[in-house]
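Dear Dr. L.,

I hope this message finds you well. Following up on our conversation about the binding site, I have prepared a predicted three-dimensional model of the protein together with iron/sulfur cluster. For your records, I am including the exact sequence and ligand specification that went into the calculation, followed by the structure tokens. Please feel free to forward this to your student if that is useful.
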Amino acid sequence: MYHSTKYWHKLDDGRVQCDVCPRACKMHEGQRGLCFVRGVEDGEVRLYTYGRSSGFCVDPIEKKPLNHFLPGTSVLSFGTAGCNLACKFCQNWDMSKSREMDTLADRASPEQLAASAQRLGCASVAYTYNDPVVFMEYAIDVADACRERGVRSVAVTAGYMCPPPRAEFYAHMDAANVDLKGFTERFYRKICGAGLGEVLETLEYLKHEAKVWFEITTLLIPDENDSNPELEQMTRWIADKLGPDIPLHFTAFHPDWKMMDKQRTPAATLTRAREIALKNGLHYVYTGNVHDPAGASTYCASCGTRVIERDWYELGEWRLDKRARCLQCAAQLPGVFNGAPGTWGARRLPVRIAVEELSRSAV
Ligand code: SF4
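The resulting structure of the complex is given below.
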């Protein structure tokens, strides 16, 4: 099963170039791109994972992580297979590096998926686990079906995408969490097989041209991207180019995939990074993947009141009014809010959409 795509062109030497991401794979008939889920057949680039998933799960939105987008609500997360980056530290490598279509055990049409999200009470659907850039046609159709039902769409992505498909993709998204994997071209080229410049361009595009709420995540890897000078440079760039209100999450690495020789990120590293970012003017900086209620909570940028207490994915005290203004000083908290917080908590609920559909049709 395949889906035709439109971002590609023919080269003079007979090959076909995919124009979805800056990797610009040039393929002969029958070849696949680096992501392995797009390939050339009958002279065109086709997507082979449309309608197929490596699994569905209802998560807290804080797990994406998004702290300023409908806090406390649940999100139906899913991914497919393949990725356009080659991060040596990939924390989802079983899916992102999968060349076995057997990992795509579940099937769902966009309409089925949107209906399931609505039935499960999810405020949004997240395209995650592997980068939705490589399955953009499927993600867009799901997002459209979701919009019709009042369910929003969240992209969890590395932001490595060419401008024309990017504009189309984000026109259908409501929120995004973009991985900023480091702040040197060396790290991007050597560790991720991608480029920093293109990702920064996507971040500026999201800030200045798209109507999408977005937050940034940086996974800190000991001795690779966690030095003070690099963190200084990164957080100054964010404050300067994107403004102080973009939430930034520093998360902890655990040894995985081709990076088993590194230690887990110490909690002290996340705290140090957070302090640097706050010093450089960012208002909302979080620590993640560690137990750190102080670093996971949200504080009013105007008066310093803790307005959302968070412990990992669990919300505690809520000190915002219905329009997300601080109860202490009435300053507006930036983000997307819908009155009171959701009550999903920290639960994680795996779902089989195909089974869901079957049991529904049997009722
Ligand atoms: S989306 Fe896949 S096939 Fe297309 S350029 Fe990127 S890695 Fe290559």
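In brief: The radius of gyration is 20 Å.

With kind regards,
A. P.
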